[in-house]
Amino acid sequence: MEHIRDVQLVKKDGTCISSSEALDKKKLVGFYFSAHWCPPCRQFTPVLAQFYEVPFITEVHSEDEDCLEIIFVSSDRSAGDMKSYMDESHGDWLAIPHGDGAVGKLMKGFEVRGIPKLVIVVKDKVVTLEGREGVTRMGPVVIKEWLKQQ
Question: What is the pTM of this model?
Answer without folding.
Answer: 0.91
